[in-house]
Specification:
This protein has 122 residues and is mainly α. 74% of the residues lie in helices and 0% in strands. The chain has one domain: Four Helix Bundle (Hemerythrin (Met), subunit A). The protein has 5 helices and no strands.
Amino acid sequence: MANIEIDWERLAGLGDGTQAGTGTQRELVRLFRESCEIGVAQIREAMDAGDRIRLFKSLHKLRGGCGTLGAVSVSCAITELERLLETGMDVSPSAGLARIESLISLTSIEFTRKYPETTEAA
């Protein structure tokens, strides 16, 4: 399993140390999952359309959301892909996106371990 880096202090800072604050953190983790799903879909659509501007905007937006919640590994992987694409080299973003998706999944698992109530009912 890949080593996943999460800035737990950053996530904790989004709450206020109370039970209500923990509820806020759980809600943010739920929103992380939703926004990642939407973000990955937008990146895929931009890739399929060959729209580099939309691709960069979608990557940037996803990176910001991940950074806000302390999903460091995901944010770093997105930054790496952005830098590769900025070089103008003939780089396929597909491999980078597959890595990002894997890190999102692993980060989500770690979030679920910390906040078990964030799992959705089957």
